[in-house]
Specification:
6 strands; three-stranded antiparallel β-sheet; GMP Synthetase, Chain A, domain 3; alpha+beta; three-stranded mixed β-sheet; elongated
């Protein structure tokens, strides 16, 4: 896997993935940015959300669960001192479907947290990661 990040101006950067996709990042005004895009640490949190959502949807589809939506809401706390790593992350899953099995949803979430989501497993080296979920009937 490869990536490239190029400085645009001020504290704005464009990241290019090895698969050919681009994303813009910017800093807060107090650090010279113009607040035009997500911060790099926000991108890490978004990446974790995408990774775990991908897993949950895949696992539930393979279990033939009638899933119609999956939203992952993340909240994180960071260390006060540099490096300001994540110290706590809470992940709330909102899974929608018709007649979803609570047991299957819980199993999918535990599997992504403990086995499949490489981003959250990496972040668990510095952060306490907790999760919960709710099921919405379609």
């Amino acid at each position: 896997m490869k990536a490239r990040v190029k400085w645009l101006d001020n504290m704005s950067f464009v990241g290019e993935s090895g698969s050919g996709h681009s994303v813009v990042m910017d800093g807060a005004p107090d650090s010279g940015g113009r607040n035009l895009a997500a911060r790099p640490m926000e991108m890490v949190l978004i990446g974790m959300g995408g990774c775990t959502a991908f897993d949950v949807v895949t696992i539930l589809k393979r279990a033939r669960q009638p899933i119609s939506d999956c939203v992952v809401e993340l909240s994180a706390e960071r260390a006060d001192d540099i490096p300001k790593v994540f110290t706590r992350i809470h992940v709330h899953y909102v899974v929608t479907g018709r007649g979803l099995s609570e047991k299957q949803v819980e199993k999918a979430i535990n599997l992504t947290a403990e086995k499949y989501c490489s981003v959250s497993i990496m972040l668990a080296a510095t952060a306490e990661i907790t999760h919960d979920f709710e099921i919405i009937e379609d």
